[in-house]
């Protein structure tokens, strides 16, 4: 059996595959395949090797129940692992509730979304709001498959974003809230400081660095008690037809049918701004306003997280590298040139020159620090900003993108402490990942307790945890 992920950059070749109907069947399958590797998959909307399964594969789409309860002054949803976010939003909406944080897409399963730290803008990631995880795993004494409720301490912090490495997630308990409205309008700015200056009054905004024009277009957003606008449906139609499809079809026509780099630059400088209706203030439900149809066209993506105090320098560096990679410049600024010389990456930079012309707005979203061990925004301190690079080239023509992604991940992790998103292209080695995820040591301790035989790993996650083990041993000597 051969399965491919959404981006068609990962091949899954499980030895056996099941779609269990309930928890009892999950336990029966685990006991039947005792000693073999077991992985669960959601909708395969991930580009990293975390999605791979080379042993027994479980598709949990039948575990999709939704139950909402009041617990004191909190609304808590109990949600089956295989429930897609769009179904969860529909079920919660019927009861006047929603999720406190949403990513751009709603086709993911709940377990898949939290396992890789899916996030929106202006709040914590979804993982932060998990208050309990129901896991199927093997008992260390009897070897039998059991169900364990994880609801406190380091185990919960690990289970909130686990890369599927602690056991099979059967269901989660997630904090919910009453449905609310968002006001949104668009603006264009020449500098990052102009965008960030508006953040205190528009805390849910996300914004885009427009390549080759080098301006910023912001989706300014704030929560509001105002009623839904009478023209909200028209605004949604504008996004669906013009932004989610029209803009993307234009980009696809450029990159998949022989793009000319000068044409790409011209489109972004002069045509793309025509798609943006500035200043149109609209109020709509949060579950409509905070998402996009980003899954409508196949693409590939790398997303790098930097702290707020590194954002301006990281974006200046990004602009320099994109100019050089696209063949528009022959060198970086003196400041960024010195940075790369200090890392010894000059040859890597020269090899990238003229090899990759970026052709999509660079999405930037603020994520408040998470109470997790290894989500991208884990740990206290300043807010994180996710910088997303997306390519729409066909799978067989992605070599330039992968070269660019590898260079950006390696250099930005060393220069700015950037963390790559677990669910997107993640080209760093286990050693490099260990350096930017300090919670990995505690995560490994939880994993070793819940899955001592590494049954719920794939080769990529196993190597990552082995690196954590080697680092722990080195530190003990």
Short key terms for the protein model shown above:
single chain, 477 residues, alpha+beta, Uridine Diphospho-n-acetylenolpyruvylglucosamine Reductase, domain 3, Vanillyl-alcohol Oxidase, Chain A, domain 3, 3 domains, eight-stranded antiparallel β-sheet, six-stranded antiparallel β-sheet, 35% helix
What general form does the structure show?
Answer: globular
Number of helices: 15
Share of residues in strands: 15-25%
- What's the CATH class label of the largest domain? Alpha Beta
Our measurement of the CA-to-CA distance between the termini, rounded to an integer number of angstroms, reads 45 Å
**CATH fold call of the largest domain:** Vanillyl-alcohol Oxidase, Chain A, domain 3
**Which strand order does the major sheet show?**
15-12-14-13-17-18-16-19
Structural class by secondary-structure content: alpha+beta
CATH architecture of the largest domain: 3-Layer(aba) Sandwich
Number of strands: 19
Specify the CATH homologous superfamily of the largest domain.
FAD-linked oxidases, C-terminal domain
């Amino acid at each position: 059996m051969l399965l491919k992920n959404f981006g068609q950059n990962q091949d899954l070749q499980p030895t056996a595959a099941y779609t269990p109907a309930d928890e009892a069947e999950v336990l029966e399958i685990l006991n039947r395949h005792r000693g073999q590797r077991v992985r669960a998959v959601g909708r395969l909307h991930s580009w990293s090797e975390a999605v791979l399964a080379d042993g027994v594969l479980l598709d949990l789409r039948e575990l999709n129940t939704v139950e909402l309860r009041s617990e004191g002054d909190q609304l808590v949803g109990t949600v089956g692992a295989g429930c897609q976010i769009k179904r969860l939003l529909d079920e919660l909406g019927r009861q006047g509730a929603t999720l406190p944080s949403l990513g751009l897409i709603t086709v993911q399963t709940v377990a898949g979304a939290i396992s890789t730290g899916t996030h929106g803008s202006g709040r914590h990631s979804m993982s932060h709001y998990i208050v309990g995880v129901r896991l199927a795993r093997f008992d260390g004494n009897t070897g039998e498959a059991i169900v364990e409720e994880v609801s406190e301490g380091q185990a919960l912090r690990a289970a909130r974003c686990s890369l599927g490495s602690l056991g099979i997630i059967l269901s989660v308990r997630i904090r919910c809230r009453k449905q609310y409205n968002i006001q949104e309008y668009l603006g264009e700015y020449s500098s990052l400081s102009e965008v960030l200056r508006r953040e205190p009054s528009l805390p849910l905004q996300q914004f885009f660095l427009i390549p080759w024009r080098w301006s910023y277009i912001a989706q300014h957003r704030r929560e509001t008690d105002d009623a839904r606008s009478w023209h909200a449906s028209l605004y949604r139609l504008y996004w669906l037809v013009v932004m989610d499809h029209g803009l993307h079809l234009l980009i696809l026509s450029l990159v998949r049918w022989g793009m000319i780099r000068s044409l790409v630059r011209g489109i972004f400088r002069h045509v793309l701004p025509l798609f943006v209706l500035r200043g149109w203030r609209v109020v709509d439900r949060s579950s409509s306003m905070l998402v996009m149809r980003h899954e409508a066209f196949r693409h590939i993506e790398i997303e790098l997280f930097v702290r707020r105090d590194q954002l301006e320098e990281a974006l200046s560096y990004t602009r320099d590298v994109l100019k050089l990679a696209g063949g528009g410049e022959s060198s970086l600024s003196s400041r960024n040139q010195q940075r790369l010389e200090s890392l010894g990456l000059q040859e890597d930079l020269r090899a990238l020159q003229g090899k990759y012309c970026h052709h999509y707005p660079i999405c930037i979203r603020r994520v408040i620090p998470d109470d997790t061990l290894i989500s991208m925004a884990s740990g206290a301190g300043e807010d994180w900003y996710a910088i997303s690079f997306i390519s729409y080239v066909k799978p067989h023509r992605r070599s330039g993108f992968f070269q660019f992604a590898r260079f950006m991940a390696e250099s930005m992790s060393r220069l700015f402490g950037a963390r790559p998103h677990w669910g997107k292209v993640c080209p760093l080695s286990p050693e490099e990942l260990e350096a930017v995820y300090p919670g990995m040591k505690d995560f490994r301790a939880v994993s070793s307790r819940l899955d001592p035989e590494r049954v719920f790993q794939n080769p990529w996650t196993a190597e990552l945890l082995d690196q954590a083990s080697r680092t722990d041993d080195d530190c003990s000597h």
